[in-house]
Structure formats: structure tokens, C-alpha cells
Amino acid sequence: MGNTGGIGARGRGISWQSNERTWQLAILAIVALAVVLRVHAFSPFDISHADELMQYLEQANRIATGHGIRPWETRYGVRNELIPQLLSLPFWIGHRIAPGTLAGMYLARVTFAALTLIALPAAWRLGALVSRRHALAALFVVAIWWESVLYSNLLLSESLGAAILLLSAAPLLDEKAGVRALRMSGFLLGLGLLVRFQFAPFAAVLFLYAEWRDRRRILPLVTGGIIAAALGAASDLARGAAPFSWVFANFTMNIGEGRAAGFGVSGPFQYLVDYYFHFGAGALIFTLLCVLLAGRRYWPLLCAAVVTVAAHSLIGHKEYRFVWIATLTLLALAAIGSLNLFRFLADRRRPGSGDGPVPLAATLAVWALLSLSSFQITGGYSAFRGGGALSKLAAMAGARPDVCRLAVVEAYYAYVAPSIMPRRVPISVAPKGVYEGTRPLPPELVIAADALLAEKRPLGTEQYRQVACLTLPSERPCLYVRPGTCTPDPVYDFQTSLERGGM
Fold it and tell me: Which phi and psi (to 5°) does residue 292 adopt?
């Protein structure tokens, strides 16, 4: 009898270890799939918004090298420099180990993409509040959903801020969370706001819920937030600014002076339209249905997402990225709710089968198909980013040792900056009319720049020869080069042109 008991114990041990190994392999497989999808989608020259290049990549390069373009947001100090300061290190390393190349730019892009992967453990922790099956479902959806992959490769504060805030959420919903976990959540809430303070409605709802459930949570949450605030203050002091002065400057410029409205305004229901175009009807309906099935414990998180969309709907200038934290949250909750749905259906068909592998497998399969369908219907990555041909042509110009200044037609300037060029080459911006063909390239710019980035050969550029062309969806930009030297350009220099136009 003793031997039998021993064999049984060993058998149970082997079974337990085997089960744990299966879970570990499943988690590793999904994380590996997430990385593979992001590597496949990696396109460092394509951008979705000019901020990726001008506000973050360019400022990181400027901090690392002392040379770069300063747009109005940087000149007026309307944003903190946490992201540029962070990315300046890989830029600095790249310039040191491989000068005259784009190593720094690639390292910075990869570093940022890697940081956005914290959305994966964030999703796992949310699902784990119910079970490991729910955790795996949430992990899978955030790992493979095509827009989650896209935003991991967009160098935007929204991409990183959303991942950080989502990581803070699980302990705030967990009544058993300890002081250390709550302190970390407070830090992550504060850090997420430093990265993207426009996500304040989301953070506020979670904080207020945690405080309402248990007043004893206030101290660890505030303590973590103070640590994050100290980090933000140190960042501001490092760039020579008063701590958090960028918050007041942002409100003054964007709200008080209407800078944000100058980029366009839209109606209060624009985000509903955006969700339709970004998901497709079928995927959107399924997502919203499954969100409602996630369970009452997630209602505060759902409320935070809804409040975020509602708050941003009241602001005239709207962009889909402004509510990305809400979208990422809805995806994680919908994954959890969809598993609940398939478990219910399995139990209805055969009682007790809801805890088997079939509902989880069905959940993963459906989300994989939905992601693929949404990708095809919406146009996928290429529908929401592009312009890489322009940046690549600028990089080609920088790689040519004979080029001493590059002129860029006004319509293309948002895709060109020193940070995407392998060496320091001065840049000028040709005035309006040159791209449209209504005026020639100014003679002083002809003698100042020996390289030109334009579509059709502009008037007055007969001495330039075409050396390379790349294709965009609706046009074919080319790089033109002339022999000879370059002169200084105080009129059309990139920085001067930006300041003259208030950009």
C-alpha cells in the first residue's frame, strides 16, 4: 500500500508538472507570436502621424547629438521629454558604435517597440483576475490583434501610455492586492499620465474606484504617484524647464490659443465613426457584445474606457489615437467576455464542458479570424501609415558623400528630418508653389542645395539629374542631384522655415 501511495503521488506530481509546462509553452508561444507579428510589421520609415518623427525620434536624436529640428511644441515646451530622453540613449549608442549609419534610429525604434510589449503582461494580469484561461485569452488578443501590432510600431506617446496605464489596472480591481502592488499601480498611473496626460480621465476613474472601495488604498497609490511625479520633475529640470510647466503651456497653446483646433475639428460622434472604420462592422459588434460579458468586476475598467471616449468627444480636435487606451482596454475585456460566451455555449451543449480546452481554443480561433478579417476590410497597416518612400529618399541623399544640402518641397517636409539621415546634412524647405509647379525653385535655393526631393522636376532645376525614385500610393517622388557645391541658406533653412510658418 505504501508503494502504491508513492507511485500515485509521483503520478500526480508528473501530471502537475506536465500541466504547468503546457501553460508555460502556451504563454511563450503567444509572446513569440506577438514578437514575430511586430517584427513582420516593423517599418521604421513609415509613419502615421508627424509626431512620430518630429516630436519623438527627432528630439531624441537632438538630445543625443546636439543637432536637430525644434518644432513649435518643443520651442514652447508644451510636452515633457520623457520619451525623447529615454530614446536618446539608443541614439547615442548607435552613433558611437556605427557612425555614419542609421543604427541609432533603428535602435531607438526597436527600443520603443519593445517597451510597448508591456501591454502583454497587462492583459494577462487582467484575465488572471478570473482564471488562467481568461488570462491566456486576453494575452492572445492583445498580442495578435492587428491594430495592437500597428500601435506597437508607431512611435507615439499614446502607444506607450496606454500600455503603462493598462498594466496599472489589475491590482486596482483586485480586492486582495497588497501594498506593494498598489504602490506600483500608483507609480504606473503617474507614469502613464506623464507619458500621455490626455489619458487623465482613464486614470482618474481607476484611482477614484480604488479609493472608493477601500480608503486604506490611498496611501500606497499616492506614494507611487509621488515617485512618478518626482521622475517627471527630474525630467523637466534636465531639459531646463520648471517642473510640469509643460502642462500649463499645453493648455495655453492648444486650448487657450486654439492650436489644436487648427489641425481640424469634428463632431461629437466622430469616434463612433472611427471605431467602425478601424474595426469593421462584424468585429466591432462582436467586440462590444463580448465586453458586456466580461463580468461585473471589470465594470470600473469599462467605465474608464467609456469616460475617456466621452471626454475626448467633447473636444473639437479628434484623432483615433487619442482614445487608444480605451480601444486597448475594450480588446482585453472583449477577450475575457468572449471566453465566458464560449464556455456558456459549451455548457449548454454538454454540462461541465465549459472548463475544457474547446471553449478556449474556439476563443483564440475566432479572434484570429476576426483580426484577419478586420485587417482586410480596413486596409490594414498601409491604410493608417505611410510616407516611407520620402524618408528613404532623404536617407539616400544623406548616404551620398557628394550631397552637402538637401532641399525638400513643402508638401514633403513632415517626412524628412536629420534623425532619419545617416550623417549630418543641412535641410531646406522649398516654398509653396514649387511642388504644385506654379513657381520655380528659388535661385538662391538652387545654389544652396545640391540635392532635391520632389515629385516632378520643379521649374528652374535643369541642372539637377534624377538619381532615384520610389513609389507612394498616389505619386512617385524622386531624388535629384546636381554637381557643384552648396552655399549657406538663411531663408529656406528647415528651422527658419518652421519658425516663419509658426510650426
Answer: -70, -15
